[in-house]
């Protein structure tokens, strides 16, 4: 139904452009038509008309035509998230963005920024209510969940002129990301998103810590921090646990560590295949056998680790219900460390008044969903698919737009130093910390404190990571949608209690696993294995 409505909308939008293009094409091709008539009197008028139409279609710049036919400024809604909700100063930043896009595209934008803790619920309610969301970033709802719920449009839908939306109106996206990366955002062969320029790998077994408390913790452990590095690389997760316990000993009056729902995969050696934990690959994705994560030794060891940390006093009793952003808790002086993923510039700067440092105890790893699972998507409630694709294309093409998104307004929110690095007002109102969401981050300025060649370092980081054999695979949940919903509900019921260390591992894991199996977990794993096998066969 949505595709029929979408096609009808495009057809209606393109009618005027088509008549205009055909009329202008008649005079431009008259001499060639006359020549053709002289050389071949047998050519029928129908064939000649078809030839003219094909020639016109090939010559028409439909992207330029769409802009020319946009007689009124189109208003679009772009939805993304920040850890602590919409930053102050957004209005002035949006005004500068519109100053770029209204003259060039005749499109203005409204930035809709949600708090990450409420993001899934917020997006679900918005889409269910039919609210306008033209473009949105997938994280917090998820690529496969968006597709399963029918929230996203196919970016290769017919453009009304015999091509596809992305091919006709998104050439800068293709040039920036390349098809190898873009294709990782397919589900069931359908393209639903476009990944962005960022870290395409994760440093596993990582935490972000306050330096002042880490220094005090040295008296309680045998490890010696390397403060000269952005990331202190330690041997394993065991070292991470040692550090957290020492930090608790050094500062027992504040919460040592705030766990994350991403902790279980971020602190184990599995590829959460397709972006969820309902069937994973072990050994950093070097095995292609899909297994039940909750029956693996690595999951049981992780849960035991969290239980031990909780028993030691490292985790707040409020961790199950506290939805405050980790950075906000740290800024308030109430938190010493939180979950993160390592990357070249992970700990440059401060969190509030506190200097921070990243510590990593695992390899740099690219999972199956690391690239395509986090992507920009087009909402099914968009008011204009063509305008939405043209705006998305501009987001990938424009260095000016990306700098506005990342740093705000030059002279107000940041300045440039003599090396061309962005000097950000850490106490400024637009310091949202979500630069990695920018479509073309590598076209923007590097932040002060980083090496000038940071974006080149990112390329080395991305290329040098351990890559899952399933990198680029996406799981289509449609064949098991009923089971997927049921299993998700069971997991949500147990996850935090078990994975944050509040439940005895001996009994709680078995109880959760049994309930998930009853809900259909085994069927999901079997379907995931079947899809993975088919995908792997195509890679050869």
UniProtKB/TrEMBL annotation:
Pfam families documented for this protein: DUF3502 (PF12010)
Region (Disordered): 24-62
Signal peptide from the UniProt entry: 1-19
Keywords associated with the record: Signal
Domain DUF3502: 470-537
Gene3D superfamilies referenced in this protein's UniProt entry, alphabetically: Periplasmic binding protein-like II (3.40.190.10)
Compositional bias annotation for Low complexity: 29-54
NAD listed as a keyword: no
PROSITE patterns from the UniProt entry: PROKAR_LIPOPROTEIN
InterPro entries: Bact_solute-bd_prot1 (IPR050490), DUF3502 (IPR022627)
Protein name: ABC transporter substrate-binding protein
Organism field: Candidatus Faecivivens stercoravium
């Amino acid at each position: 139904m949505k595709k029929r409505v979408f096609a009808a909308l495009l057809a209606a939008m393109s009618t005027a452009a088509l008549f205009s293009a055909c009329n202008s094409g008649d005079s431009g091709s008259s001499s060639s038509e006359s020549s053709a008539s002289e050389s071949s009197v047998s050519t029928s008028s129908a064939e000649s008309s078809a030839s003219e139409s094909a020639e016109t279609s090939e010559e028409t710049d439909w992207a330029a035509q769409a802009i020319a036919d946009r007689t009124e400024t189109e208003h679009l809604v772009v939805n993304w998230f920040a850890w602590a909700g919409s930053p102050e100063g957004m209005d002035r930043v949006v005004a500068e963005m519109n100053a770029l896009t209204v003259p060039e595209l005749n499109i203005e934008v409204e930035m809709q920024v949600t708090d990450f803790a409420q993001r899934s619920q917020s997006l679900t309610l918005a889409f269910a209510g039919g609210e306008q969301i033209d473009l949105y970033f997938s994280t917090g709802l998820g690529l496969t969940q968006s597709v399963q719920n029918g929230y996203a449009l196919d970016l290769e839908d017919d453009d009304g002129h015999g091509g596809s939306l992305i091919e006709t109106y998104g050439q800068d996206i293709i040039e920036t990301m390349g098809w190898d990366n873009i294709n990782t955002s397919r589900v069931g062969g359908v393209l639903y998103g476009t990944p962005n320029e960022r870290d395409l790998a994760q440093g596993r077994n990582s935490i972000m810590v306050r330096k002042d408390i880490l220094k005090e913790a040295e008296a309680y452990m045998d490890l010696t921090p390397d403060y000269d590095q952005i990331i202190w690389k330690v041997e394993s997760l065991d070292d991470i646990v040692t550090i957290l316990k020492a930090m608790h000993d050094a500062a027992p009056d504040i919460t040592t560590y705030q766990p994350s729902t991403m902790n279980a995969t971020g602190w184990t050696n599995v590829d959460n295949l397709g972006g969820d934990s309902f069937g994973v690959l072990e050994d950093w994705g070097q095995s292609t056998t899909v297994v039940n994560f909750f029956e693996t030794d690595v999951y049981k060891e992780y849960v035991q680790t969290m239980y031990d940390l909780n028993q030691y006093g490292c985790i707040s009793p409020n961790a199950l219900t506290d939805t405050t952003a980790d950075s906000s808790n740290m800024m308030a002086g109430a938190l010493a460390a939180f979950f993160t993923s390592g990357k070249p510039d992970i700990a440059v700067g401060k969190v509030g008044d506190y200097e921070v440092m990243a510590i990593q105890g695992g390899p740099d790893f690219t999972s199956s969903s690391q690239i395509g699972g986090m992507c920009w998507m087009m909402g099914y409630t968009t008011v204009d698919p063509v305008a939405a694709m043209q705006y998305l294309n501009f987001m990938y093409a424009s260095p000016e737009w990306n700098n506005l998104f990342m740093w705000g307004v030059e002279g107000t929110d940041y300045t440039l130093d003599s090396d061309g690095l962005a000097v950000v007002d850490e106490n400024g109102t637009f310091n949202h910390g979500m630069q990695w969401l920018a479509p073309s981050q590598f076209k923007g300025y590097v932040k002060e404190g980083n090496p000038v060649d940071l974006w080149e370092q990112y390329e080395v980081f991305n290329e040098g990571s351990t890559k899952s054999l399933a990198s680029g695979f996406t799981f289509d949940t449609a064949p098991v949608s009923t089971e997927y919903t049921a299993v998700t509900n069971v997991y949500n019921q147990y996850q935090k209690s078990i994975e944050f260390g509040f439940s005895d591992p001996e009994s709680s894991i078995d109880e959760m696993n049994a309930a998930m199996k009853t809900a259909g977990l085994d069927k999901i794993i079997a379907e995931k294995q079947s899809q993975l096998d088919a995908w792997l066969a195509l890679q050869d």
